Amino acid sequence: MRIKHSLLLIAIALSGYLVRGLDAQEQSTAEMIRRNNAMLEKYAHSIVEVEYFFNIEKQSEVPGLQVRYLCPHCKNYHYEGLESLISRRRSQGVPGFVVGADRILSVDMHLRLDWLERIEVICDGQRLPAKITRYYPQNKAVELQVSGLESTRLQPISFTGQSQGRHSYFFLVKEKGIRIAGCRPDSSESIRKNLDSGIDYREMLPNSLVLDSRGEAVTLSFQERVTLTQERFAPPQHWANIDSATREQQLMDLQSHLTQNLFPVTFFLEEEKNSEPRHYRRYREREDDNEFLTVGMLLPDGRLLCNLLLTGNQTLRIEKIVLHLPDGRSISAAFVGSLKDWGGVVIAPEEKLPGTGLVPPAAEIAALCDQAAISVFTQNFGNVLKLHLVPTVLDQFSLGFENMVLADPLNYDPEKCLLLDSAGNLLQYSFERRGIIKEYDRNIHPLSGRYVAELLAAKEPFDLQNVPKSAGPASHYAWLGIEMQGLTAQLARVYNVAGHTKDGRIGVLLNKVMPNSPAAKAGLQAGDILLYIRTADGESRTDLDSRYSDAPDGFDADFPWDHYDRLPEQYFSMMPPPWPSVITSFIDLLTTIGVGKDAIFGRISKGKLSEITIRLEEIPTYFAVAPRYNAKEFGLTIAEPTFEVRDYFRMESNAPGLVISNIIPGSIASVNGLKPYEIILSVDNQPMHKLQDFKEAIRDKASFSLQIRRLTTNRIVKMQTQTTTTAAP
What we know:
The protein is mainly beta. The longest helix has 16 residues, at about 245-260.
């Protein structure tokens, strides 16, 4: 078949060709062109184009996969997104080499057969249907059986058993619709050693036909390097292979193995009463979630590791943990521990699970270069385990956490996937790291399976403070004990800190430091300016600005005390507290570092810039989670004043008073004019300090008198179970 110049461009690689003892005399350029053109004329018609068409029904099911092709022309990978190919109805084309009457060999694209709508081979202007029949794992190749190929004029490549002289590579690629053929001499005389595996390598030109000095076909090359223990120029008929049915069965067996070692898990949390203003709650939706779906990985000791980062407050609210089994049953699991520095929770199921657990391989990841691997996409999809097994190869690596060597192969997404070797051993597992989280960045780190195993085997792997509590909705928020406001350009100039604060764009001004708080113990003072916060290990740093200041919100700035008596009782339950919210974005920021951890702040104090280290403490009990007493017969609920309540009302620490937290519409308390957030000073002239005082004071009484304070005004309210009269102030 003649080569059509409108479709085929001839690319001859002449530069960089160094002859080392194989030819006695240097050939002229004209002679090299003549010889190479002869090779191109001989073999161009033995190369076809293979096109893979993907199943449109898989567009939403296959999670963001890519296909790639290592181009012999530019020696770079060409990538295409599977979703893009499907949405644009495009195919992925790669070269194929005719090796039999109805067979061709092509590069292994690491595809699952059910992703494919069809495979077509283009030759002689025809499109012939094809299917994958065999895999060559060591050579990164597949065999395709092509219907109707025997009726074409294409001739199978005949491989010589006696290679002579120097080798060269013949390739054909398609770039932007143009077919380009090329012939390149073999110049890979150097040998490289992988010091981690001890394996010696020699480079090859991928996706090419290897020719000897006579122009006879020697073998095919689909990879960029081969080991010295692997016969470099062995013809394809000598390659180790498995048929496609066996390969698919291996993947199905691995998937079955994983269904016995990966389980959907649901964490149910007690509902937390939210007393924060609504506009702030919008930014804390995940904190307020009461249900978390994740996937638990079975460990060899029978426990499960769940990839889930829970704050201290969320862990405290864990009500139950449910494990969903493949047979449709659900069983309970017990909380064991939450990892100190990582978003991982270990749980213990109430019954023994069928699997044996996932374990790391004996070899280090760096020693597994060019080995086959499986990227496993996992998802708890409505309490059903969703798995996608994606074949890949460990041919790219990177440095990760603590400089550990990590594999970074095609179609491995650390945020969604586990990485296994072909035997099902755990190569890599990802966690979200605890610490300061930058906006839109979940701080996901892939870790080697060996590192995860050592982490769990440590003497004290768990954070003993991050545990559930069966009694009381107390919180494990971290706390500093300051009130602050964002800087402005004017304030920055007043305090002479415009340069350090970017003219007031960063930095917060401390208005108050609470006594005996972590801030007070560290020496912070009102008037200091905080510029940033960072963790002691230097992992994260966040600039402080008005986003983290205590700006008034909701009714905090102007609570309608003057119009309180006209407020209809049906609105009582919707009234936010008049004092500022305790759980702010700044508190959330501190909590990501953790109670008991050190935080380092950039501080300007009296005009001097320095850093100050503060040990974060657990926030004292605040009003939203303070214990309540519900006097049902009178329709009111009360709580003891917490630190932010006393600060708002300027109450001394030993001053009496109980805060009304709720009033039931139509109740005796409502009829008598009591309102939420008023203070009960005394019952029948007995001062009220504790909830127990109130319980004892009203026990077995049909009527009693309350001394009520609203801001600075006191009044007496008489309560009676049958009839009620109210005295004037």
